[in-house]
Write a structure and sequence with these properties.
This protein is elongated. It has one domain (32-108): Immunoglobulin-like, CATH 2.60.40. The protein has one helix and eight strands; from the N terminus they run H-E-E-E-E-E-E-E-E. The chain is an alpha+beta fold.
Length: 109
């Protein structure tokens, strides 16, 4: 089956548009992260939750390891509330601005 020049031009334009859409969607955005150490009396706190939220909506949570470290990734730049919880007890509440505060160590008193 043969197509005329008009149909070929339309098909070519459609293929180019599809390729451009796929390529632009595959480019990385301005995603960022926050990481740090949670400690108390100079010792790492293990197995506590670090929860990050923006506009009262949870954006991520991380359970600290034996070394007290946490990592929360795939975040948009902006202002966030960060909370440390042990079971239902809130141990710390703070506010960070990403990506400026991409390392945020938390000392529980």
């Amino acid at each position: 089956m043969r197509y005329g020049p008009g149909v070929r031009a339309i098909l070519c334009a459609a293929v180019i548009a599809l390729v451009c859409a796929v390529v632009s969607g595959a480019q990385p955005g301005n995603r960022t992260y926050v990481k740090g150490l949670v400690s108390s009396s100079g010792r790492p706190l293990r197995s506590v939750w670090v929860v990050i939220s923006q506009n009262a909506r949870e954006r991520g949570r991380s359970l600290t390891g034996d070394d007290g470290r946490y990592y929360l990734g795939n975040l948009d730049p902006g202002l966030y509330d960060i909370v440390v919880q042990n079971r239902s007890n809130q141990l710390h509440k703070g506010r960070i601005s990403l990506p400026q505060n991409s390392t945020y160590d938390i000392a529980i008193r």
